Amino acid sequence: MNNYCIRCFNTLSVVLVSGVLILEIPDIALTNCTQFQIRIAQAIPAGITADTTVSIRTTSGLPFPLLNPCCANNVYADQIRRCGFYFVRFGSDTGNFILAGGWRLCRTSHVFDVVIPVILSSTTTTKSTKKVEVKKDE
Length: 138
Known about the structure:
Blueprint: E1 7-10, E2 13-17, E3 20-25, E4 35-39, E5 53-58, E6 64-67, E7 85-91, E8 96-99
Parallel strand pairs: 1-4, 3-5, 6-8
Antiparallel strand pairs: 2-3, 4-7, 5-6, 7-8
């Protein structure tokens, strides 16, 4: 039951609040892996930039970030389009919405942080061989 779309919604509003594009949908019960489809029914407001992230909120709920499943990054406002349909799942343990269904997003102009090198700690084990001289009794 968790792997198919149970509801399809048009957005009630699409607003820009403090650098976050918020897609508002009707109130629904959000349980783990709840999947639904969103259609962006309003125009994307002016003022979005490549750094504007996207969140989804229900009418009476708080906004939760929308994540890209292929790279676990935020979805940016320049990646979505008006009249676009997006399948979304809710992850209750992380408090995030995640794009589902293999939907492709447009490319973003967002400049990601510098590459963070991952240094694996290597512990070297030195094998100590001690030579012991053995003398026979004469």
